[in-house]
Structure to design on (76 residues):
């Protein structure tokens, strides 16, 4: 991975979307609030949705965007 997650870092959280497809899985901005497992890069996040903040614990890392996981933002 190259980077280590630390409290305060900005990352992306990939939302689940809805089962019926009304809402697609989308990347959301998030801030790491806790590193829950340093060995697996599992973190707690404050996720910023267009309709408000969502707090979630024990979110796994995925190098590629995957629903329910966090990843580093792409470099452009």
């Amino acid at each position: 991975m190259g980077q280590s997650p630390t409290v305060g870092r900005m990352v992306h959280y990939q939302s689940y979307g809805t089962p019926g497809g009304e809402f697609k899985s989308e990347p959301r901005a998030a801030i790491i609030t806790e590193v829950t497992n340093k060995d697996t890069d599992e973190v707690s996040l404050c996720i910023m949705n267009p309709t408000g903040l969502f707090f979630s614990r024990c979110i796994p890392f995925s190098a590629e965007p995957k629903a329910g996981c966090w990843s580093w933002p792409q470099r452009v």
Remarks:
- The chain has a mean pLDDT of 95.
